[in-house]
Specification:
The structure is a homotrimer of 508-residue chains. Chain A is of the alpha/beta class and 508 residues long. Chain A has helices at 52-61, 107-116, 132-143, 149-156, 185-202, 223-232, 252-256, 258-276, 296-309, 330-345, 379-388; strands spanning 2-16, 24-25, 65-68, 92-94, 99-101, 120-125, 167-170, 207-210, 238-245, 285-293, 350-355, 365-367, 373-375, 392-399, 402-405, 409-412, 414-421, 426-433, 440-445, 453-460, 480-481, 485-486, 491-496, 500-507. Chain A has two domains: 18-388, Glycosidases (TIM Barrel, Alpha-Beta Barrel), CATH 3.20.20; 393-507, Golgi alpha-mannosidase II (Immunoglobulin-like, Sandwich). The first copy, chain A, is 26% helix and 26% strand. A ten-stranded mixed β-sheet of chain A has the order 21-20-24-18-17-14-1-19-23-22, with helices on one face. In chain A, helix 5 (185-202) runs parallel beside helix 6 (223-232). The longest helix of chain A is centred in the middle third of the chain and has 19 residues, at 258-276. The radius of gyration of chain A is 23 Å and the shape is globular. Chain A binds chain C through residues 131-133, 136, 140, 144-145, 147-150, 152, 166, 190, 194, 197-198, 201-205, and chain C through 76, 78, 90-93, 95-96, 98, 100, 128-130, 177-178, 180-184, 187, 307-308, 310-311, 314-315, 317.
Chain lengths: 508, 508, 508
């Protein structure tokens, strides 16, 4: 059996554990909103039509922020459509998802729902088909004190207090040719700068997120970030990263090592940011505001086929269709846990992140219309990480055997991160075994933290890595107790089966 | 007497006779709509206010498509102004034609009129002063199934079924400094690509026409097409060509050879398209969506004088003024016929064309308010060509004497094209004698087609090439029977007087 | 005592004294409109709420044009907000000045006020956050004859006659990063050209002003003008210059020589205009449409501090706050007088100018709410110049001692300009003594004009150069009679104390 040793020291701090790293994302897409968080006829629906069973799971998941209302959706969206008396709201075509948007849920309902569930709202302005003036209007409607016509409309619509949204996305994936109103880096950089500057004239304390590349495989990746930041640097505070991971064929080993790709992606964007900002006192951080496991190649192939079949078979315009409702396997959950380790280790530069998405659409929570809501396999590593981590992220020294992958070559079989809450006197160790065949014996030397006993120890692992949860078997994949011993030498000892993820909290 | 021989072979096919080659154009300009197709008080007006006498001539003309609502007009147009209850529609200034637009006729009335007369509607979106979102709105209003607010407005406005417009112009003549909102090739190419991509997200089966040059004399001709297509290639299906021809001074010979110019224009655009698309599987065709004879230099001089006289004499803002109501001469009709020959011969690349315009404004049909409608001289070659051609266009080998022109040097005195409808067993030969003094003896060897007898034979020729039609003499210029013999050898023999055009149909 | 001699000849004409050189500026900012020209509850308020005491001073000041409604304000402004029934007008946030705009005063009220006081209106269109179509709408609403929906709205709003605004600003200071919707020179030049071309299609007699640099210290100064003019040349008639002058520390000498800076600024823009227009028959003149003395560095420091304090201390959104209500000193008045001399001397190229602003905001007129209105020190040189000059500006030959300045080195102690109204047989001599210690003995040889007697002679000078006017002492700084002798030799003789400005009119 292979041995892994991990050492930490409390003085070797990377950064605080930003709570915004545990953000999520609700797009007007598929059954994310309608039939997801919102279903008026549902037995658990509250007086506003939001499902209480879903809200309970959202709170249990521990998400901190929620990005809204898109995603690609936002680039064709008029925010005004979603406010005011429901019976007067228009029904619209959404060309991003070829769907019907009823506008039953809009800014005010969603903000109230987010607030009720302790979520910070992260709003996106439409820079695909709208501009500066509409962004200013939305900002005034959202955050303005009563006394102006737009703010008074919000009050009349049932929100007497400003929503006080502090973090805003300047459009969405504007580098993507699929984006409605897609722009060149030059044109987007200019538009983002103009919009951001105007918004900051209204409120200089806003935190504004410029669109980075839609993924690291975009042909413009790198030059996009450079150009956009060169044009908007002084006006923006974060730049976005998006990444989705999937298993190609039966190459589980490479899939498990997805964190390597995320690591490299982050490093590349950091290098670009540092290059552009080399002579500036201003700081721009990273917002990894779309990340998850997603069998995207299946989706892309289906969409291309639907487009190719047109006009012989006109594509339908459904409302709230079943869209990319991936069932997550135990192996997917291990990867999600592993990616959280990667994100935490980059907390010095990554100040916000959003698991995409929250409900039904490639989501940790799934629902049936009129029926139950349940936790997907990926729910668990996220919930454990959000609940158990805190304080600061510590730099770890890891000595681990390697495991082969087709895509990345030899990678460290075990990856880990440790957070340390000095005030509470607790530390949390997150570990992943990316090996597909060998268990890993791990020793984590926590002696420098004065750790004396294990508080909690959870293992995410199924012998059948393809196991999934469902309405019928909602708890097929769930954490198991982990045998983790903390010796008097302050060393935590445990064994990770192959394809597993673990979270262990210790106290002083 | 000079002899011309023409040979054809059925296997030497250029392309199908696209019905869209016989398109027309109705712009909100002058008396094209108001007092043209539409005149509520007229004795022949139907219950919607459209003149039945004009509609009868439109159907007789045989036009297939109708481009609408502009033209330069569209670049300042809000389509919403033209829909809904008439009494609520705004009266607007149209700065393109310095006229008043009452909006009595808009999308729904015009679409109903086009449908009633068997015309396919070709709509233009405004890219001079509007953008992507408005184009999507118009598309949804026009083609959307009931169930969204915009489509339901159309239903409420009396059009329960989608208008199902398949071919759309992405703005109009955006290269022209006269165009409201004129753009550089780079900016227009970007805007056209963004708009087209968004429209195709809604409906990938649409056929979209990018603006090419306003004419082949534009200083940016060639580079405009290249730049626009490089930026929009994958999203557009056709690129437009516009050309107007006129007789300069007494140089009738060069005027008659206008087809040479059109030939060269088409070849140049084809070369540009092929260059840009050299590595692509996607095809971009040509839409010659404005062509005609027009004494444009008179119009331009008058407009410049009016502008120069301002502000001493403020230019008026008339509604439906008499604007460029050219009287067409017999010689003009011969040129129109000749240009149709040219267009048909390029049917492999030119997939659509629009005679500009349909009624009153440089048009084959003229009207008097409260009075008659009549056919201009140019009506006849168009109507004959649209009615008699079909099947496929055949490549011809022509051996003809030449005739001198000041502008083009020696040109072939006779030009011709042959279409062949194998199913019907009929062929149609179109011929023009561009010589100004000599008749032409023509032999067309149709033996390979198995032609046995002449079905119809029409000659367009007046000894007075200046002869025109008018309300008082509506048939002064009209086709005459042509003595055309088809011998047992399958050879068609006829004599074309100078400045004449002929159409002969033969059967098996 | 130092001697200065000035010689003029009637044939050496620079240009007519354009009345538009005595323009002003009213921005929706601070208490310029609200509590300035307009204060419904004020004892002197007319039936429309405008203060009669202020209007009286405006007429006395002799301003000819008034630029409106901004300034930075215009770049976030929707003109529609300011027209129609007051109770339906929206209350808006103005992000340019972080203020609330009630829209109680809008286009129609202001135009009526301007007309009543003999002022020509100079309107600005919003090119920061709006575009061509909105500019055309505003033009139609403002100048259109009744009969279109927009013009009829104006009629319904109480303005039956077109406002007939002839001179329009194409946005405001679009080169400034502070400007809402700030653009690059390329993008602004394109937008200005598109907007101007469209406006001139509606009315070719309009005079359109493109934005030049916000000041001569902008890093893009020069290249901005060149690029903007290269893109818009044929469509624009004037290019703007803005400059504010202030005393740095105790360097009064350099401050008094501010005209040197203005001279150089004008010369540089003239050179740029001449370069761009080298091959054109079209002329582009200069519009110096913001100029004044302003202690701007104090304002900038305060604004930066307020922004830096956010979000800890959210910036307030006041309505009509006290904003840059500088108290002007006697020395400031001398500089204003001196700058008027400079402007007049450049009347061959500078065809319009606007003192910025008119009331309360860095203004010659100040008010107290419910209380008095009074003339600031700078009121006087402006009023005298506007009243006494006329006819043409003559070129002068000046031989004067020099005076040292830290910023400009040695400058001529005395600057002067002479205007000559041949018809009236009167001439006016404006003189400034920029020396800080020495009086100047001046001889102006007017013999060539046939001058025989002094009509008026005014001296602006206080021993205490820091003296200011106030509500309590509204006439502390005011012109004094000047002992000026016109000898039989036609030579005008007078003595200017240090830091003084004088205006002398003579008759034949």
């Amino acid at each position: 059996m292979r041995r892994t040793s991990v050492t930490v020291a409390p003085q070797d701090t990377i950064a605080p554990v930003h709570r915004r790293l545990f953000g999520s994302f609700v797009e007007h897409m598929g059954r994310s909103v309608y039939g997801g968080i919102y279903e008026p006829g549902h037995p658990t629906a509250d007086e506003h039509g939001f499902r209480r069973d879903v809200a309970d799971l959202v709170r249990e998941l521990g998400v901190t922020t929620v990005r809204y209302p898109g995603g690609n959706f936002v680039s064709g969206y008029r925010w005004e459509d979603g406010v005011g008396p429901r019976e007067q709201r228009p029904v619209r075509r959404d060309v991003a998802w070829h769907s019907i948007e009823t506008n039953e849920v809009g800014l005010d309902e969603f903000a109230a729902w987010a607030r009720a569930n302790g979520l910070e709202l992260m709003l996106a302005v439409n820079l695909g088909t709208r501009g500066v003036l509409e962004a200013l209007d939305l900002l005034e409607y959202t955050n303005g004190e009563a006394g102006t016509t737009l703010a008074d409309q919000r009050v009349a619509n049932g929100a007497p207090e400003p929503h006080d949204v502090r973090i805003w996305c300047l459009g969405n994936e504007m580098d993507g040719p699929w984006q409605v109103g897609h722009l060149s880096a030059e044109d987007y950089g200019t538009l983002a700068a103009r919009t951001a500057a105007a918004m900051k004239r209204a409120d200089s304390g806003l935190e504004l997120v410029a669109c980075g590349s839609s993924n690291a495989q975009m042909p413009t990746f790198g030059s996009w970030e450079r150009t956009v930041l060169e044009r908007s640097w002084e006006h923006v505070d974060l730049i976005s990263l998006h990444a989705y991971y999937e298993q190609r064929g039966d190459d589980l080993a490479s899939f498990l090592a997805s964190g390597r790709d995320m690591d490299h992606f982050i490093d590349t964007v950091v290098a670009t940011v540092d290059y552009v900002g080399r002579d500036s006192d201003h700081q721009v951080h990273l917002s990894f505001d779309e990340w998850n496991v997603w069998r995207q190649s299946e989706f892309n192939a289906a969409e291309q086929a639907a487009i190719a079949a047109e006009p012989a078979v006109p594509r339908p315009w459904p409302a709230a269709p079943h869209l990319i409702e991936d069932d997550y396997r135990a192996a997917d959950a291990v990867v999600v846990g592993s990616l959280l380790i990667t994100l935490l280790r980059h907390a010095d530069r990554v100040h916000a992140a959003s698991l995409a998405q929250l409900v039904n659409v490639i989501a940790p929570i799934r629902t049936e219309p009129g029926g139950p809501a349940w936790r997907q396999a990926t729910f668990h590593p996220f919930a454990l990480t959000a609940r158990l981590t805190g304080g600061v992220v510590l730099r770890t020294r890891t000595d681990a055997p390697s495991t082969p992958t087709a895509r990345f070559g030899e990678v460290s079989a075990v990856d880990s991160v440790v957070t340390w809450d000095e005030e509470q006197g607790t530390a949390t160790v997150l570990l992943v075994n990316r090996g597909t065949t060998e268990p890993a014996t791990v020793e984590v030397d926590l002696s420098a933290l004065g750790a004396s006993h294990v508080l909690e120890a959870h293992l995410l692992h199924e012998d059948d890595v393809e196991a999934t949860n469902s309405a019928a078997a909602p708890d097929r994949v769930a954490p198991h107790p982990l045998a983790a011993e903390l010796g008097p030498d302050g060393v935590l000892r445990l064994v990770l089966p192959p394809v597993s993820w673990a979270a262990v909290s210790v106290g002083r």
